[in-house]
Every structure is written in structure tokens, then in C-alpha cells.
Amino acid sequence: MTTAGWLFLVVFWGAIAGLTAWCFSKLLGKP
Amino acid sequence: MTSGGRERWATRLGVVLAMAGNAVGLGNFLRFPVQATQNGGGAFMIPYLAALVFLAVPLMWCEWAMGRMGGREGHGTTPGIFSMLWNHPAAKYIGALGVFLPTAVGIYYVYIESWTLAYAVFSLSGEYAGLSGVAAMRDFLASYQGLAPGHFGGIGTAYVFFLVTLALNAWILRRGIQGGIELLAKIGLPVLFLFAVLLVARVLTLGAPDPAFPDRHVLGGLGFIWNPDFSRLGDAKVWLAAAGQIFFTCSVGFGMIQCYASYLREKDDVVVTGLTTTMTNEFAEVILGGSLAIPIAFAFFGRETTVEIAKSGAFNLGFAAMPIAFQKLPLGNLLGFLWFSLLFLAAITSSVALLQPLMAFLQDELGFSRPRASAAVSLLVFAAVQVPILGLGAGALDEMDFWAGTFGTALFALAETLLFVWVYRPERAWAEIQLGAQVPAPRAFYWVLKYVTPAYLFFLFAAWAWQQGPAVLRMEGVEPGQAPWRWAARGVLLALLAGLWALVRVAWRRRRGERTP
Known about the structure:
The structure holds 2 protein chains of 2 kinds.
Chain A: H1 3-29
Chain B: E1 2-3, E2 6-7, H1 12-23, H2 26-38, H3 45-72, H4 78-85, H5 90-95, H6 97-125, H7 134-144, H8 156-174, H9 176-204, H10 218-226, H11 236-250, H12 256-261, H13 271-288, H14 293-312, H15 314-327, H16 332-366, H17 370-390, H18 396-423, H19 426-434, H20 444-467, H21 469-473, H22 483-515
Antiparallel strand pairs in B: 1-2
Helix pairs in contact in B: 1-9, 1-13, 1-16, 2-11, 2-13, 2-14, 2-15, 3-4, 3-11, 3-13, 3-18, 3-20, 6-8, 6-16, 6-17, 6-18, 6-22, 7-15, 8-9, 8-16, 8-17, 9-16, 10-14, 14-15, 15-16, 16-17, 17-18, 18-19, 18-20, 18-22
């Protein structure tokens, strides 16, 4: 893996995981 | 169970899991890695992200909103829904595409799904345990598919697994929304994710598993997908490939989302629920799917062979390369079982979604009971699938996949965007999306929906038509021997479409007849 590759991976994984977690927190948080 | 006579989803989590099951399929674990590898690696993620933000997310919201709207009037499919958007006799015939496309794809998808079930069984029974080498595994697959002599005497085994798989789908569909599809998703999705996480953990901890080849490190395989080749961004084919992958993986442009959304209650949120489903799909695709097939292939077979396998297609990657790679590891048969079970769960949650629109159409518009609809759908699939089964080697499946799965969905997406946003009016479409929203959709997407998405779709079409259209229509580059089977596949599609148009006509006449005393 190159540095650029790691950068792409970290940014995309982070965004996807973060947004997914946010969505589920909203979904499951609502009474 | 039902409200106002229509089936409803039992819980919000159930909807999300069912829709996620709809979206998460073979494309996440097989098609995505191949597309990313072939189209510039990390750089592919740029057009991929653009397609996700400017195509998939807006279209997804439109489809959820349209579907919920249709459910209010008892329409679970787009012939009825489009008639609500546009008071014109043509609307229902254009809408018929939203039943035609998922059914057409469902026909051959169930066959591929049956391979995953077979291979899950083979992994445990040791049917391919003696084989070493990808070439031997490819022969095993070809023999299973009846394309070449070998381990299997003929296509009998594949046929049996197909019938079992079709029966399973029919049974789930017959059990309905809560007792069938939602229950399948509530069990299947968590198990799918568990299996995927276990396999990703196994793959990413491989290091360089073959001491004779220390440079074949699993991170090198990750690099295949993530190291960016920016020079590819100037190639329109890459942007087309990214858009195609996003469509396929998010299940937009099929009419499937509208169908599932029609079982929502009137004011159920679609903004957060829809986004959750899309993000779950992206998690499965980018994080899990991207960390399995290509990295492990690289670790065991090296760069050149991985490139060759990726070029030869997703089936060879999933059914030939993967099991051989797993065999080289301790508990290889168990890993193979996890892999094919994961694929099977991904596939079956998608295949029921592909076949539900026809179920819904028969029930909603023609008054079929659920058992009768399930039997009718099964018979149709059984009859139609003979062409892709017997014509597999001649490209019949590929032909169906192109017209329905690629070309058709893009065309349908364009039609539904124009109808929902432009004909129905942008303010009304936006209000429909925002109705019941737990968190309102950002206003920027109003402008995206109104201008960017239709323009993007239009340019994709124009680019394809310019680059590939005439050649594909004329079957350029296709071996002469394949032509009859490819024409047979086109015939199946045309017959299905014509049949559905006829049924739409019958349904609407029936409704007019019921209204007049």
C-alpha cells in the first residue's frame, strides 16, 4: 500500500463507518 | 399485520434490514472488488463517490418517497405509482419497467444464487477438497455449470440446487412481508455481517502467507483496490463503470425500493431510514467486500494472477480463486463454507426483493392471493431461466444482465427522475421526501434532484450511446455461435415485457370495470 492508498482507505472507511454509526444511532435512538 | 388491508413492516429496524438485504448482494463482495481493481483502484473511488452522492442518494430518496406514496393508494409497483405522478395513459406502461427489470434480473440471479448454496454444501462435504490450483477450480465450475465435462456428469446437480433455491424463494415470498422477507432479513443480515467480519479478520491477518513469496502480502492486495491511479479519471468508461456499480449495488433504478417502501406507513420517515440502508450497503461493499476477495487472491496468487482473475470476471474470483485460497489455510473448508454462506445470504435477501415487485403487482393490481402469486412467479422464473441455464456458455446470462441490469436500470432511473421531479413538480416531490422525516434532508439535495441527477443520467446515456451503443446492438465482437442464444435471451426479455404490458392493460381495464356500476 502506498501512502496515497492508505489515505484513501482511511478517509473512505472513516466516512462510511461514521455516517453508518450516526444513522443507526438516530434510527435506534428514536422511541 | 396489516393496516387498511395492506401488509406493513413490523418494525423500523425490520425495514432497514430488509432494504439492506435488498441492496447487499453478490455485487458487494464480487462485482465491486473487480470493478475497483479494473478501473484505477483508489482513483475509482472518486467517480464512485460522485455517483453515490449525486445519483444513488437522491434517487434512493425519490424511490422510497414514491413507494410510500404508492402504498397509500394500494400500489406497490410503478405502473400504479407512475399513474399517480402523471395523469397520462402512457405512465403505467413506462411504470411496467419497474416490474419488468427486477423480474428479468431475478430470473438469472436465482440461478447464480443456487451456485452459492451448492458451493456452501461442497465446502463442507469436501467435494472440491482434492483440487489445487485456480485452473482446476475453474474446470470444476465449468463442469458444474454443464459447460464442460469433468467432475460433474452433467448439469443435473446444478439443476437440483436451482430447484431447491427457487423453492426457498417461493416459500419466503409466500409468507409475505413480515413473516417472510422481514424475518429472513432479521436473521440473515446479522449472520451475513458476522460471517463477513470473521472472514475479513482472517484475511487481514494473513500477512505474507507463502514463505516462498514474501512480497505477496495481503496489504499489497488492499493496495490493488486503494492505491490511486489518477490517470484513469480521464476515461469516460471509468465514470460509467462507477455509476453502473453504484446503481447495481444500491438497487436503484429497479423498482424494488418503491415496492418495499409501499409497505411503510403513511408518515414513516424515509430520509434517515433510507440513508441508513444505503450506508449499510456501502459498509458491506467498501469496507467488507473490498477487504476479502482481492486481498486474499493477491496474498496467495500474486499480482499477475490476481489481475488475470479480476479480468476474467467475478465468477472466477468468487468460485475459483477464493475456495483455492481458503484451502491453503487451516480450517479451509470452514472458511469456504463461511464465504459461500455469506454469498448465499446476500443473494437470497436480494432475490426475494427482485421477485417481490411481480408478487406485489399480481396481488395489488390483479387481485391474486399471495400463494397464487408465489406459484405464478415461480413458474415464470422456472420457464424463463432455461435460456440462461442452457445458454450460459454462449453469453445468454450476460446478455440479460446487460439489457436489464445495466442499460434498463439507467433508463428507468432517468424516467422516474423526470416523472417524480419534473412532471410531478420539484416542490411536491421534495415535500413528499421530507414528509415524516426524522432529520430533514439537506436543502442542497433539492437542487441536486432538480438539475444534477437528471443531467448526470442523461450524460451517462449519451456517453454510452456514443461509445458502445451501436456495437452492443449489433453484437460486435460476439462469436457467431453465441448469437442464437443471445437472441433467445433478448426474446425472453421482450416476451416478459410484452406480457407485463398486456397484464397492465388487463389490470387497468379491470379497475375501470369495477368503478363503473
